[in-house]
Design a protein that fits this description.
Helix content is 25%, strand content 30%. It is of the alpha+beta class. The longest helix has 17 residues, at 2-18.
Length: 216
């Protein structure tokens, strides 16, 4: 079951990594190879606000920000980022991860999603009893902070991962992040992963319940 829980946690972390750009590629940030970002108010997380139309409008905001020479930062609400994730980035979510929802409160981010174990690639063999002990869909959530990290970009600092209502020990976070390609950096906590800066976005962070992208 340890491998099973780790696999589910990895799926959620791939969503987190994809959240504001690492995996969006040309869909949202054309010509950019890497980015980072992740969004709370109860209103912003309301399901009725997460729509394809909201995704289109958010993409237009991002394009306008990229083309503007005056705007120093762009702020996105949780429902905008959730809409982008659900409707504007096909192929980004790992197969088996459904209906991601983001909440932001202050400088905190929480991502919740449903995970279908049988649909996950390379799902561990549990001796043929997976169907008997694993539900069709497992609720998974991960929370933490997205913070500036000097001139290098931003860091995603994890504080909690919960799988099916069971918290994953924080001692497992470094192993999970290592599987995501985490590299040691001076001053980078073991439970954090670096989101490097790039030519158009210097850093990203969460403030006042919004995702803030800062121009380079």
């Amino acid at each position: 079951m340890k491998r099973f829980a780790t696999r589910l946690a990895l799926a959620v972390l791939f969503v987190l990594a994809a959240y504001a750009g690492w995996k969006w590629g040309d869909v949202v940030f054309p010509r950019l190879e890497t980015a980072i970002g992740i969004g709370d108010t109860e209103e912003s997380a309301a399901p009725e606000l997460v729509t394809p139309e909201a995704a289109d409008l958010a993409r237009e905001k991002i394009e306008a920000f990229r083309e503007s020479e005056d705007a120093l930062e762009l702020r996105l609400k949780a429902f905008e980022v959730s809409s982008l994730l659900r409707y504007s980035v096909p192929g980004v979510l790992p197969r088996g991860v459904v209906e991601p929802t983001v909440k932001m409160d202050g400088d905190r981010i929480e991502l919740m999603a449903g995970v279908i174990p049988s649909a996950l690639p390379e799902f561990p063999d549990l001796g043929g009893i997976t169907g008997a002990i694993v539900p069709d869909t497992v609720s998974v959530s991960a929370s933490g902070s997205l913070l500036p990290f000097g001139e290098q970009g931003s860091m995603l600092l994890l504080s909690e991962i919960v799988v099916g209502g069971i918290p994953i020990p924080s001692s497992a976070f470094p192993e999970i992040l290592a599987a995501l390609g985490r590299k040691d950096e001076q001053g980078l906590p073991a439970s954090a992963i670096l989101a490097p800066a790039f030519k158009e976005i210097r850093s990203a962070y969460i403030e006042g319940g919004e995702l803030v992208l800062v121009r380079a």
